[in-house]
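ok trying again, last paste got cut off:
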Amino acid sequence: MNIHVLSLFPDMFSGVFGASILKKAQEKGAVNLEVTDIRTFSGNKHNQVDDYPYGGGAGMVLKPEPMFSAVEAITAGKQPRIILMCPQGERFTQKKAEELAQETELVFLCGHYEGYDERIRQHLVTDEISIGDFVLTGGELGAMTVIDSVVRLLPGVLGQEDSHIQDSFSTGLLEHPHYTRPAEFRGMKVPDVLLSGNHAKIEQWREEQSLKRTFERRPDLLEQYPLTDKQKLYLEKLKNNRLDA
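nice, full thing came through this time. structure:
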């Protein structure tokens, strides 16, 4: 996969792209990550890429010329998904990450001012993505989040191919709790079932804990989840216990 980022502050990506999973993914050849300074395509000696908004108002607006020129230069002969990081965009989810992981070319546009000229939104991008209902200084941190989420899904990136399958949201539920050695720490013990060696009971415990955690923390996810009869009974038990408490 090729991922290209357009930003006014390309140095922000050095640490993130040069460490941990993203670094390993590049070393394995699973992904190629490139960052380009939008000012390179300003077309003027002052490298100005923004201007005052028509009609007045606070802040500066990113001009269309640099964005169009940059995208056209790096996508020549390609048909990438062009993603605008924007608080007005579609809320980013694990399902969206899995969708984007199927692509071969992604381009991320990161603004850093009041906003984008609307023509960029209307005629250049294929997707608008938001990572939540809050506003950041620019789109860079959001792009890093999305890129990390997508790249870890690519074949060969994680140490174990199925590592991401049981992640929270990948199954539609929140992930079950995890424990490691020691079996007891300051009086806090690992659940006996995890030490039993009985894989069937361990899987049952994990499924029930996943349901319990989702019920307690994100009950909205259960509204769309295809529950089995057994899972429905377990959730009824949880609800009754809550009412009795």
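cool. The radius of gyration is 23 Å. Strands lie at 2-7, 32-37, 50-51, 61-62, 81-91, 105-109, 115-116, 127-130, 184-185, 188-189.
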